[in-house]
Each structure stands twice: as C-alpha cells, then as structure tokens.
Transcriptional regulator GcvA
Amino acid sequence: MSKRLPPLNALKVFEVAARRLNFTRAAEELHVTNAAVSHQIKLLEDFLGLDLFQRSNNVLKLTEAGERYLPRIREGFKIFQQATDTLLNDNNVLLRVGVPPSFGSKWLVPRLYRFLNRHPHIRVEIVSEVDRSYRDCDISIDFRRTQFADFRIEPFIATEVFPVCSPAIAKNMVQPADLSKQTLLHEVSAMNDPDYPSWQSWFSTLGVNDKDVRKGPLFTLALMALQAAIDGQGVALGQALLVEYDIAAGRLVRPFNVETPLRLDYYLIYAADMKENAAFQAFHQWLISEAQSR
C-alpha cells in the first residue's frame, strides 16, 4: 500500500466541489477558474485511481467512492482547523456565525450580549457574506435553502412581512389602495429570488394581480430600504423581526393592519459533525431559546 499522501490542494478542491456539487460555484468560492478546479479533481482521481464524481446531463453527483471519501476528508480539515485555533488561542474558543447583514444587525446583534454573558469563554465572529461563508462558518442563518452535501438545514424562525413607513406618510394612508400614491421601496433579493417576499407577492395575497409594482428605487440590503422608509422616502416591506425596535421607537409604523399569509422563513445551516462541538451546541441551544421566547 502506498504511503504517499494526495496533494493537499486537490483535497481542498474536492471538499468544496463535493459540497457545492457544482464546479463553477466551487471555483467562485475558491477564487480560481473552472479549469483549475477540473485540473485538481483529475489530479486527485488519477492519484486514487478512482472516479469521485459522476457527470451526466449537466448534473454533478458523487460516486460511491466519493461519498465514502468525503466525510473523512472533511473530518481531516476540521481537525486541522481545530488544531490551528487551539495553537493560536488556547484560552478562547472562536465560533464563526454567518448571517445576512440586515438580520444580523436588527435581530442577532441586539441579543448577542445575552449569549456572551452566559459564555464569556466563547468568542463570536459575525460573518455577513452568508452565501460565501458556509464553508468557513460553524453555523449560518439564512433564508435560502441551498443544498450542500453533508450539511444540515434546520428550520429556525419565521417572520411576518408587511408594509412599513414613517409616521408622516402613514397619516395619508388608511387602506392598501392608498399605496398607489406612494413610492414603493424594493429589495434586490425580492427581484432575484422568487421565494423572497416582494411587493408583487404582497399584493397577490390580497388578490390584486394587475398592479404595476416595478417603479421605485432598489436596495441591496433590507437595512437600506428600511432607512429610506424611516427618512420618509417611501413605503418598504418590513420583516416583523427586523422592524420591531423601529416600530417600538416610533421611527416606523404599520400604516394599516391587513393580515396576509406573507412571511419569510430562516434556517440554520451547519456541517453534520458540528453537533460534537461544545461551542456550537451552546450557541445552537441559545438561538433556539431566543426564537422561542420572542
């Protein structure tokens, strides 16, 4: 039996490609070209004398050998990471948490002190680029359910979505029809993701499908749309979890209480083997208790 080890870089590329099940996305995450990913995978397959991926009809799947290989490779990289963390900081445990910027700012960060007070030995690093952070984070919170091999996706918390605006604008509105006279503030995610609440989907829940809602400024972050609403620039769709403090402070109001089933679901995303990590367990339990106590 050969005692040689396969190239470490090829193993890392394999772990990312196996998790993404897409060479293009793996290349984006690793900041290399598609050709570089393909080259590293071929290098590893040639070294092993086995096919790790099955490619058919533009669908990428792990072979039986790849399925057996992946958990042990992931375990190895996890051990490397833990050894490095221990060496760099023996007295503190670092927990990396991925979260969308607006959800992090409006929901997670205002509550985070409660976790830190209970667990002063755990350092928390908040990472806001969630779509690029699953690999680097111990746990992520996201509204997307992107599938990754050997990652768990757990329902976390749901939030109602409804119009919000400044008190001054609210004085001129008593029913949804009054929105026709107002500027609608949009989020880019609502335009690009059919599962993300949009003005179109909000009107559809009222049975209104002929309203042109394409006009109005676009914002990359919910934070920006909400700030524009606070400043009186128009009406935004607000997630209840993100606007509760601004409503309590009187910066935003709900102009009319029209009950709709429109909501957004958030999920916890983490590698299956994180269940064995004590810091993860503590943070996971705290998140669940915060969601249940709201």
In short: The first helix runs from residue 8 to 20. The mean pLDDT is 87. The two ends are 58 Å apart (CA to CA).
